[in-house]
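I am writing to request your help with a piece of structural work I have in hand. What I wish to show you is a protein chain and, alongside it, a tokenised description of its three-dimensional fold. Could you please explain, in whatever detail you think fit, how the structure tokens follow from the sequence? You will find the record immediately after this paragraph.
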Amino acid sequence: MTKLHDVDNILRSLDPADARAHHADSPRARADLHRILTTDVSAPARSQVQRPRRARKLVLTGGLVAAATAAALVMPSLTQGGDQAFASWTATPASIDGVQDQAEAVDACRASQQDTGILSEYADDLNRAQAAIAERRGTWTTVVLTGSDGFSAMCITDDSASLFSKAMIGSIGRTADHSVLGSRDLKAVSLGTGSMSAGDISMAAGIAGTDVTGVTYNSPILGEVTATVARGQFALWLPGDELRDASSGLDVTVVYSDGSTGTHRLSL
């Protein structure tokens, strides 16, 4: 016996609707009316409660905001437009060569951090901080400012959306034990993932020992990503959220001043 035949027999065995069911005095109508009238309606009907969907949060704890023992800040973009989906991003950065261009990028980053008004305790540090890194990846600019006692501030912005006044994400704070660093060591200050209007962004930045001349991260998705290393600092970032859980450990390749290389595990 075929499955089709089984289905046919099942359908034939079902109680067909009574053609007279529409008559109010039919047996079926009277039975339906009796069932309705005798149903207990005092108990409320059970309804399925739908849990509210949680809005996606920026990865702050254990990531950008947890800059060692420093208080830090992440400022997501609130704008649309610009370089959507990081289309212009490059794995290898380019330096901002012009003195005027670099000065404008640094001043804009400083002003943007000041405009947040959230961490006023760093106002003096921010005013005195000097530029350690100023790089470009496509239309995106990264600036790292450093000062005394382990202070640092970072801004990543989409230049095409108006320099540092829009489409910017960054961190600010002070790093403990900043002076206790071996010449071949790295110390992560910002490590994790945040979100902007263009999408998720992952970054790794911090302090580099005096013998460190290069840092690269081998992304399983985007390939080798090169950091800028300058004035005792390193910084790299890439589109996506693959560094979401990196605060517990991220392996990078380090190049030293004598040309040798090694592997270092970044963590917070």
Q: What stands out?
A: The CA atoms of residues 106 and 143 lie 6 Å apart.
